[in-house]
Write a structure and sequence with these properties.
- The structure is a single chain.
- The chain is an all-alpha fold.
- It contains two helices and no strands.
Length: about 90
């Protein structure tokens, strides 16, 4: 004999099982949303770290700055030598 399931079919569930099912659904949904939020925060932190690294990599190093300073000093000295030569 086959059971017919329709709108008039009655289902009996003990209240303990119903509360357990609802509790499991609440806990699992909280876990999913909390995990998604943590992943989003980690992705944001990673993007900020990547941006900081790329900005740091674009900055000239100290040695490059020192070379530029030396070049400017050399140009200044060459100008002074040329002015001294012109005055003599």
């Amino acid at each position: 004999m086959a059971l017919e399931v329709n709108e008039k079919t009655e289902i009996i569930i003990p209240i303990k099982i119903l509360i357990s099912i609802i509790g499991c659904l609440l806990i699992s949904s909280w876990y999913v949303f909390h995990t998604q939020e943590r992943i989003s925060n980690l992705e944001h932190s990673l993007k900020l770290a990547d941006d900081r690294f790329s900005n740091y990599a674009k900055q000239p190093s100290r040695s490059q700055n020192e070379i530029d300073v030396i070049k400017k000093e050399l140009e200044y000295i060459q100008k002074e030598i040329n002015e001294i030569r012109k005055t003599k």
